[in-house]
Design brief:
Structural class: mainly beta
Order of helices and strands: EEEEEEEEEEE
Distance between the termini: 40 Å
Helix content: under 10%
Shape: globular
Number of strands: 11
Length: 121
């Protein structure tokens, strides 16, 4: 069993940066990949980034590539998503999830409650 809590969302101007954190409880956290997904109003939930259980492998969506970076600390049980050069199109609720290393949300078993990111123009 893994419980996830996101934090770090907020309001930022276009071009700014935010750091989202996903804190996990549970001794088996390192056995799970962690994915970040986001959902904007009226849109489907979409993949943003993922990191393997060891932290050695990462992958990003086309919109996140080059702007977002994932860091994983299996001692502190935290995964952090660094988001730079934000645009209004990045406005959404961001979720972290633990499960199998995949870009599909259905591969993830445990989900956080989400954190709102709003980017103003």
């Amino acid at each position: 069993q893994v419980q996830l809590v996101e934090s770090g969302g907020g309001l930022v101007q276009a071009g700014g940066l935010l750091r989202l954190s996903c804190a996990a409880s549970g001794r088996t956290f390192s056995t799970y990949a962690v994915g970040w997904f986001r959902q904007a109003p009226g849109k489907d939930r979409e993949f943003v980034a993922r990191v393997s259980g060891t932290g050695y492998s990462t992958d990003y969506s086309a919109s996140a590539e080059g702007r977002f970076t994932l860091f994983r600390d299996n001692v502190a049980n935290v995964v952090t998503l660094h988001m730079n050069r934000l645009t209004p199109e990045d406005t959404a609720v961001y979720y972290c999830a633990a499960g199998t290393y995949s870009t599909s949300s259905t591969s993830y078993t445990y989900w956080g409650q989400g954190t709102q990111v709003t980017v103003s123009s």
